[in-house]
Structures are given as C-alpha cells and as structure tokens.
Write a structure and sequence with these properties.
The protein is α+β, with helices and mostly antiparallel strands. It is built from six helices and ten strands. It has an eight-stranded mixed sheet, sandwiched between helices. Helix 2 runs parallel beside helix 5. The longest helix is centred in the last third of the chain and has 25 residues. The termini are far apart.
C-alpha cells in the first residue's frame, strides 16, 4: 500500500492537483491507514516516508502523518470509503472561495460526480474541519472545502484520484463557461 500512496502522490503533482507541499491522501486497510507524510514534497515521497496509523490515530511507522489526518480518520469512520484524496487544485479551490456547491455542467461530470457540496470554512487540520467534512460528505463522492480545496473518496486510490480529477475538470468547465457567457 505504501507504493500506491507514492504513486498517487506523483499523479496528483503531475496533473497539477497539488503543489509541492499541499494536498494529501490516504488508504485504509482494515483498521490501519496509510497516509501521506507532512512536510515532504509530493514529488519526492518515498515508500519509507508514508505514515502508518491506526484508526484511533496512533502512529505505527513512517514519518509524521499529514496534519489532515483527523479529517481522513473521521471520513473513514462515517463512510465505506477505502481511499481519500485531498487536493488544493487551482479551479476547485477558486470555486470553493466563491462559496457555492459544484454542479458539473457536462454529462460526464454529472454521471461521475453528481452534486459536490461546499463544506463551510473550518481551519485546516482541526477537529472542527474533520467533523464538518465527515458530516457533509456522507452520500457524496467528493466535497469542496471553502477557501481550501477538495476532498474525494473512493473504493481505492485510483477511484479517489479519478473523482478528484473529475471535480477539478468540472470546476474548470464552470470557469470556462463563465468566460463564454460574458461575450
């Protein structure tokens, strides 16, 4: 699982969904969570850097976990998801700053995502954010975090990545359409 975390962090960086030190992801296997480490650039995370924690948050191995670990654990506690991607992508973050839910304008986005609700702002890394996201994500494949980015969930890391990329694409389409509608 550590190698999957490394691979997916690379995907996020290469696809522009994160910058060097933004964003994080995790995967759950039974009562163990593999989560990206804090303060390691996403393009150079190694398998030995990946943090391993229990569902109670006890650190078992690797570097210190992402500061968003409480949010990841809270989501796992209320969903059947086995993987989470949290990205600070350009268009989804911009849309989150406008304070609206995301409704994908195209058929593909509607089928993949449905509605992507906006979670009201809470300071990153806090129990308040963990509670808000875990309450708001139930029944959805992803959410926008106000002034912060996106969270996507899936049955595995690839699915969560696909949802995250889908949210970013939908947000970019909303932006593009707003430009076209001004003409």
């Amino acid at each position: 699982m550590k190698h999957e975390i490394v691979k997916c962090m690379g995907w996020l960086f290469k696809r522009g969904l994160t910058s060097a030190l933004s964003g994080n992801l995790s995967a759950r296997v039974d009562d163990v969570v593999y989560i990206s480490p804090t303060k390691v650039p996403s393009y150079r995370v190694r398998a030995e850097d990946v943090s391993v924690v229990t569902m109670k948050g006890d650190h078992l191995a690797g570097r210190s976990p992402s500061s968003e670990m409480p949010m990841h654990l809270a989501i796992y506690n209320v969903t059947d998801s086995k993987a989470i991607v949290h990205a600070h992508s350009r268009f989804a973050t911009a849309l989150s700053c406008l304070g609206d839910d995301l409704q994908s304008p195209d058929v593909e986005g509607k089928q993949l995502l449905g509605r992507v609700p906006l979670i009201p702002y809470a300071r990153p890394g806090t129990g308040e954010l963990a509670e808000a996201v875990s309450s708001g994500i139930k029944g959805f494949r992803g959410v926008l975090l106000e002034h912060h980015g996106l969270v996507a969930v899936g049955a595995d890391l690839e699915e969560a990545f696909i949802v995250a990329e889908g949210i970013e694409r939908a947000a970019q389409l909303v932006f593009d359409l707003s430009l076209f509608s001004r003409q």
